[in-house]
Write a structure and sequence with these properties.
Elements: E1 3-4, H1 5-8, E2 14-22, E3 28-30, E4 32-33, E5 47-51, E6 54-64, E7 68-73, E8 85-90, H2 92-111, E9 116-121, E10 125-131, H3 139-151, E11 156-162, H4 163-167, E12 186-193, E13 198-203, E14 218-225, E15 230-237
Parallel strand pairs: 1-4
Antiparallel strand pairs: 2-3, 2-8, 3-7, 5-6, 5-8, 6-7, 9-10, 10-15, 11-12, 12-13, 14-15
Helix pairs in contact: 2-3
């Protein structure tokens, strides 16, 4: 099992780890990692690892067998042997933009309080698919409300509940198509706001900024009709 360093500190840009396996596909499995694996609409992290004067560029990160995480090289190359101590270096700019977009999408689900049927996160933009039979009446008003929340510099924190507690509170789950990962006994909740005013609370395993002001201004892009009652709302970072 790989220790999830990114879960403890989403702002960690580097860190030591030891190689515990190599995958049949040519990936490197570490005992602990700062690299987030593809999941929940968020792409896997990239960067590089180095050891004994050698460097290996990492193109992406994926989940592997047995709760392990594999770092996927950008091209075929010699891998560090099992037991080797390596230094991980994250492509921080790319990750941080994913964090900004991801947190902004949580807020988008607040200003458009409809069930979510899908979503994805990128470096420049992200999108959510809503169960929205009718078109948005005023896209500019939605964009204004979203940026107003961002500018409030709201705190973003996490907590944990048991699987049974989540089953007893199904309203916490906004996604229609994908249920939060369950089966290990507990589920992570991401909260925006504080005890005085909670803006959002939902299960999520991704990485987020610590305060909403870090997102910066966003722009709503196209609102596309996808099927009989689904609409895709695109969101772009304005820098």
């Amino acid at each position: 099992m790989t220790e999830l360093m990114f879960r403890e500190d989403a702002y960690a840009r580097d860190g030591e780890a030891r190689v515990i396996a190599q995958t049949p596909e040519g990936g490197v499995v570490l005992d602990r990692t700062i690299f987030y694996p593809t999941g929940g609409g968020q792409p896997g992290d990239s960067g590089h690892i180095s050891w004994q004067g050698q460097t290996l560029k990492i193109a992406t990160t994926v989940k592997a067998e047995g709760a392990q995480i594999a770092l996927v090289p950008a091209e075929p190359a010699a891998l560090p042997e099992v037991g080797t101590l390596v230094m991980q270096d994250l492509d921080w700019d790319r990750r941080h933009r994913h964090m900004r977009v991801h947190t902004a999408l949580h807020l988008l689900s607040v200003v458009i309080p409809l069930p979510v049927s899908g979503g994805s996160i990128g470096v420049e933009k992200g999108r959510l698919d809503f169960d929205m039979p009718e078109a948005l009446e005023d896209k500019e008003a939605v964009e204004e409300a979203l940026n107003a929340l961002i500018e409030r510099d709201l705190l973003v924190t996490e907590s944990w509940i048991t699987d049974d507690e989540l089953r007893a509170q199904p309203d916490l789950v906004k996604t229609m198509s994908v249920m939060p990962p369950m089966g290990v006994g507990r589920v992570r909740l991401v909260r925006i706001g504080d005890d005085n005013e909670q803006i959002d609370l939902q299960p999520c395993g991704g990485t987020h900024v610590a305060r909403t002001s870090e997102i910066g201004r966003v722009v709503l892009g196209k609102v596309e009709k996808k099927g009989r009652q689904n609409r895709r709302v695109n969101l772009l970072l304005d820098d």
